[in-house]
Amino acid sequence: MTFDLLDTSRGDLLTTTEFHAITNAHGAYDALRFVVRLSPKVHDLISSLPHGIGFQNSATQDQIKAFSTYLHETIHWWQHIGSTSGFMLSLSYPAQTHANLNHLRHFLDLVGPVKSIYRYAETRPGQSLPSTEVGLANTIINNQFDIEAFRLLVTNPERAESLVTKGMFESVGHTYNIALAQGVFALASTFDPAFALLPDPRDWEKEYQKMRAAREPGFYHGSPVELSPIGAYHIFEGQARFAQLQYLHFASGGAFDWKEADDAGMMSPVYTLAFDAFLTLTELERPPTINHPIIGLFLLICDVAINPGEAFPLPVRHHKTFISDIDPGMRFIHLSAGVRLFCPETAHEITQYDATEYESVVTKLCTALKLFSPMDNCRAVDHWLTKGDAFREALDLHSVGKTNNLNMPLQLLFGQFASFTQDKLKHPHLLCWPGAAMAGPHANDAMLGIFSRQSPLFIDRSDDIMIVPIVRQGLSEADVLETFQQFYNAHALYDLTKQWINSSGPYNYDYAWLQPNGTEREIKEWADRIFANVYGVSPDDFEILD
Q1: Helix (H, G, I), strand (E, B) or coil at 468
Q2: Phi, psi for residue 43 in degrees, rounded to 5
């Protein structure tokens, strides 16, 4: 039995601008572009499955392995669009532009089209006051920096040391406050301007200001920075890998176990760091087999860790523990230690991978640690869908492959998020333990419908660098293609805006992955039109500051 089809790439959340065909791995999730990428061989094997993807008794070993890779990358999509941490990370890209949109237009009125704004602020004399051009430039830069810092601190805290020593860095509490507030403000501008349903960031901002004045650790400039050794990236990779291992174990009738996983190179540190930390903190031994309650508990703790409720979708309850209540890595550490300290019996409870076990263990852990549970989050979103017409419309349009044009990317992302929470509310166990739900004695027919509804929206093509939408069963291809085009129009706007603020030199038009058959001139003209429609000037009008 060969294992080459099981390899997945690092799937780093801090994606570069380069986009190319997968040749050194069989799958990757690109968090910046919201796209699943598969190698040509995996594409071909997935396409050859009877009736498409799913748990098939007649599948070959190679098809099973290829499907496990697709499952792994699909779980990354779920993490970024279905968990509250991942959803706020996904919103952070559009939120950077939304937070600065009026500031940028005002900057054009006061200063004119110059690039980069960072270089402008760096070289212009004068005080940085709100009423000055330099002050406005620094406001734009700081908004951009805070959200970038949030992404790094949440996902890869071990790589954040250089960031927190920069003069622009205020504190962890400030960074989290700004990024989450801007994400919620972006949603409110689209769905709930009066904050009738969404939590209002201005409420927790008042408490944050009090804590900063009182010099609470983590909330004032110069405060000692305590970073978790575990980040969302490590949790994401551990969760996706161990769910993949469960699928392979059950799909092989138990023949695939630890030895086979080790032989396949599937247990490298990037995939086991979170699991090893979990075993250390719980003081549990590595179980003898993949089908074991300890593996089920690890996957459940990953699920709870990446689904904080504080600030979104629920209000902040305990302001002094705001950072540790929000941060996925800190939550993971506290939940793992909580098993040992408060709920040791949970290490043996998960045997059937069913909803009763899920809700029992989640309730024990969240009650012990005074946290909102993932089910609390789902019920909050369900309340929005019941009481808020704009929220409901986004979900209804999403279900038929369409979106409202108002802040279209936010409409699309929220529609998918809402769909995921609806499935999770009904079937939390299937989304916590998808590997067990898709093969073997715990396979559940409902998982086929969930997997179809929650499939990635976008995927690469097997034969070139282009990405394309996945047309789900029953949807109009024309509607899906129109949605796809509008979504990536906005992506170009966000990218050019980021370049305007941060990047030296002329604008870069690295969009061939969207239009591989277009000439450089055609791609540039397309992106320039999108930029000019929003800002009233073309990138060609800018003075480039060396």
Answers
A1: strand
A2: -50, -50
Contact 327, 154 (CB under 8 A): yes
**Can you tell me whether residue 213 is helix, strand or coil?**
helix
Q: For residues 394 and 385, what is the distance between their CA atoms, to the nearest angstrom? A: 9
List, for the chain, all residue ranges whose pLDDT scores fall below the cut of 50. 1-24, 52-53
Instruction: Give the torsion sign (CA, 442, 445, 449, 452).
Output: positive
Helix, strand, coil share (%) of the chain residues, nearest 5: 60, 5, 35
Instruction: Give me the torsion for CA of 218, 370, 231, 5, rounded to 10°.
Output: -170
Rg (C-alpha) for the chain, rounded Å, is 23
The helix/strand/coil state of 28 is strand
Start-to-end CA span in the chain (Å): 57
What would the two tokens of residue 448 be?
A: 């086929």
221-235 residue pLDDT tens: 989 888 899 999 999
SS3 535: helix
Q: Of the candidates 197, 177, 172, 173, which has an alpha carbon nearest to the alpha carbon of residue 187?
A: 197
Note the pTM of the prediction, 2 decimals: 0.92
**Interatomic CA distance for residues 177 and 463, integer angstroms:** 43
Q: Which phi and psi (to 5°) does residue 310 adopt?
A: -65, 135
Structure-block tokens of residue 371: 């946290």
CA-CA distances (angstroms) from residue 7 to 70, 285, 407? 11, 26, 37
For CA atoms 430, 391, 378, 208, the dihedral sign is positive
Would you state the pLDDT for residue 133?
A: 93
Write down the residue that tokens 């706020």 correspond to: 88
Cα–Cα dist 443/441, whole Å: 6
Q: Distance between CA atoms of 260 and 244, rounded to whole angstroms? A: 13
Q: 458 - beta bridge partners?
A: 469
Tokens of 106: 């005002």
Residue 473 makes CB contacts below 8 A (sequence gap 6+) with 452
